[in-house]
Amino acid sequence: MPVIIDARLRDNGAMPDNPSPLRYAVADGVAAITLNRPERMNALTVPLIQALTSALRSAERDAAARVVLLTGEGRAFCSGQDLESFGDPEIKRPNRIRDQLMVSYTPLVQQLRGMGKLVIAAINGAAAGAGMSLALACDLRIMSEQAFLMQAFSNIALIPDAGGTWLLARQVGYSRALQLAVEAERIPAATCLALGLTNKVVAAEALQAEALDWARRLAARPTGALALTKRAIAHAMEVGLNDALDYEGHLQQMASEGADFAEGVAAFREKRAPVWTGR
Questions:
Q1: Which residues pair with residue 120 across a beta bridge?
Q2: I need a labelling partner for 100 at 20 to 30 A (CA). Which of 187, 223, 249, 274 fits?
Q3: Which homologous superfamily is 3-219 in?
Q4: Distance between CA atoms of residues 181 and 196, nearest Å
């Protein structure tokens, strides 16, 4: 039976009568997190960002959650920052935007990138602005053929944020990242696949089933080793070969001391399917 947490939030912190803007459920080893503001194309407010960060931390602690699946309700994955969540006086306050980034988006992106579990983004529609950054901060991505990414920031005279500059440049390189950022055009799913911005593209009607099946298959694998693999590859992106080799040795030692390694060797010798515990 799935474990369901309803994160009911309003900008003023009160309990609303309308549906929760964030849904969280755990079943079959998968923590499914859904942004649930379809009437605003799942645009982000500070309370919603904080609720998402909290949900990710819950998934991190929950032994029953072996993989995280993030998606959006309705026709969008996430349209980025909700520009109507603050007015002109708030924008003009000294350091308003910087402060908001530091207290909301920064912890969210850091949580996503530092998760000890794989995070899959199921991109069902528009992922624009900070919504694109959110998608890129996930480890793996699967897109509906009707979905698109968009670096929308320059359309309102801003720069990419929520880690967008760092994440995009590491995916596609400096020149292509700059082009996508300054042109601020839609990047169709097929182009995203060609650029390496998504791992898979599927028919729109099959997205949720395909994403959940992918998440379940990964959750059934030795997830402790998968988490160490994630750490090793992320580290390798930032260091030279010798440092990467040294870190591989460190993490491989950790993996070899886990129960799943012993189980994997035993299952191989006994010619049976392994029973993974994630340890």
A1: 69, 140
A2: 187
A3: 2-enoyl-CoA Hydratase; Chain A, domain 1 (3.90.226.10)
A4: 16
Query: What's the CATH number for 223-270?
Result: 1.10.12.10
Residues near 158 by Cβ (< 8 Å), separated by ≥ 6? none
| pTM exceeds 0.90 for this model | no
Beta bridge partners of 70: 33, 121
Contacts with 256 (C-beta within 8 Å, 6 or more apart), sequence order: none
Amino acid letter, 84: E
* pLDDT tens digits, 117-145: 999 999 999 999 999 999 999 999 999 99
Give the relative orientation of helices 207-219 and 223-236 as an angle to the nearest 10 degrees: 100
pLDDT tens for 22-71 read 999 999 999 999 999 999 999 999 889 999 999 999 999 999 999 999 99
